[in-house]
Design a protein that fits this description.
Layout lengths: L4 E7 L20 H8 L7 H5 L2 H4 L16 E5 L8 H8 L17 H11 L3 E6 L2 H15 L2 E5 L4 E7 L5 H14 L9 E8 L7 E2 L4 E4 L7 H7 L3 E5 L2 H4 L7 E3 L4 H13 L4 E7 L1 H7 L4 H21 L4 E6 L18 E6 L8 E6 L3 H10 L12 H5 L1
Parallel strand pairs: 1-11, 1-12, 2-14, 3-4, 5-6, 9-10, 9-11
Antiparallel strand pairs: 2-13, 4-5, 6-7, 6-8, 12-13
């Protein structure tokens, strides 16, 4: 069977247990879903995800999430082969472009050659310049930034350069302009950074600062064609919801939606589902990562999962016979783990369509995230770059 519309929803950072190479990243023992379930002591209610096989795919049943007997669709996990564990790495790999060479990271802050140029271009002094939690850095330096107009520049364990500024002090458009310039400084060959992230915030003081939905990612231009490009060139609709457009720098996207939140993102999914299109809708829901994973907040993480699960019920109910739904993640971000960075984990993979003949079926542990994109290309009979193995025949026959 060929599906007219394929919907893939990426639950940003919702990992499903340590990856085989997790120790090399210092992440052995990480398990985002398992630890959130344990934190909730069996009270994590995810009936719709459970029905698709969420506990079936995990190494052991997730506390509070019953094993589906039978599961509605097919389920499994995917392993990352990219050199990093950032969102860009994960999404590019899903779309057939694994990041083979490690990108630049800055555990001791950025060199003067970068910082001085940002300061000169912006006409503003740069402060902090070291790895920092995004919420803690505005708590510690936000009031100073409001008084001086300086730029808060910081990084993490990933290949990111983040610039935070109060929206009343540095307008969002100006912050974007500074980030666009910073992007030009780290495109290689000396330094190659995955993402420049604008981090605007608002609030009267450090006890009330809140990062806004005006966040924007300025990603490295894809280093080759992705599955999105192949689909678009073949004449299919390619719809990006959330930060998808940013991650791929607009390449291969025919229409994009910016998300204010997970629920706003799901509103966009509902809107697209009501439209008549032929092709692929790719959605990222970032709140799990940005609001709860990095902040090591398992309670909020679990609440966000339960809120999504309620909306997922509507998506499942509204799927047409020739629709295919895929649910996965781009990496882990275990809110019960040490540190505040992403965690190297396997990610869940769930597939469902009302007309699937093969249900309650394990897709096993896929060798690469690229199997997702390979399956989508296979469905639309589009030739890609040969990365990844399609599982279409396993779910569509």
């Amino acid at each position: 069977m060929t599906y007219k519309r394929v919907f893939a929803i990426v639950l940003d950072s919702v990992g499903a247990g340590e990856a085989p190479d997790s120790k090399a990243f210092g992440d052995d023992g990480a398990d985002t879903l398992g630890h959130v379930g344990h934190f909730y002591e069996g009270k994590l209610a995810l009936p719709n995800l459970a029905s698709l096989g969420l506990s079936n795919l995990h190494a052991t049943p997730i506390e509070g999430i019953p094993v589906a007997e039978p599961a509605k669709g097919a389920f499994g996990r995917m392993q990352e082969i990219s050199a990093g564990k950032d969102s860009m790495d994960g999404h590019w790999e899903m779309m057939g472009l694994p990041v083979k060479q490690p990108l630049s990271t800055f555990p001791n802050g950025f060199p003067d050659s970068i910082i001085d140029k940002i300061a000169e271009f912006s006409g503003r002094k740069v402060i902090v310049n070291k790895p920092y939690s995004g919420t803690e850095v505005i708590k510690d330096y936000g009031e100073r930034q409001m008084k001086t107009g300086e730029l808060i520049v910081y990084t993490s364990g990933d290949s990111v350069l983040q610039i935070a500024a109060h929206e009343d002090v540095i307008p969002v458009k100006e912050l974007y302009r500074i980030c666009e310039y910073a992007r030009t400084l780290v495109n290689g060959p000396e330094y190659t950074v995955g993402r420049i992230i604008a981090r605007p915030y608002v609030g009267p003081d450090k006890d009330h600062f809140v990062r806004t939905a005006n966040r924007r990612d300025f990603s490295l231009e894809p280093t080759g064609k992705t599955d999105l490009d192949f689909l678009k060139e073949a004449g299919f609709d390619v719809i990006g919801i959330g930060k998808i457009n940013d991650i791929f720098s607009g390449h291969g996207i025919t229409k994009g939606y910016h998300n204010e939140s997970n629920m706003d993102g799901m509103d966009h999914v509902d809107e697209v589902m009501k439209s008549d299109f032929t092709g692929f809708c790719f959605t990222n829901l970032v709140d799990f990562d940005a609001k709860y994973g990095h902040r090591r907040n398992p309670e909020g993480f679990g609440k966000a999962l339960m809120d999504f699960d309620k909306r997922l019920g509507g998506v499942i109910a509204n799927l047409k016979d020739d629709d295919l739904l895929l649910i996965t993640a781009d990496h882990g971000n275990d809110p019960c783990f040490r540190g505040t960075d992403h965690t190297r984990e396997l990610v869940p993979l769930m597939a469902y369509s009302p007309t699937m003949k093969q249900t309650n079926f394990s897709l096993g542990q896929r060798a690469t995230y690229a199997d997702l994109g390979a399956t989508i290309l296979d469905n639309f009979n589009v030739e890609g770059n040969g990365v990844g193995t399609s599982f279409l025949t396993e779910i569509a026959n």
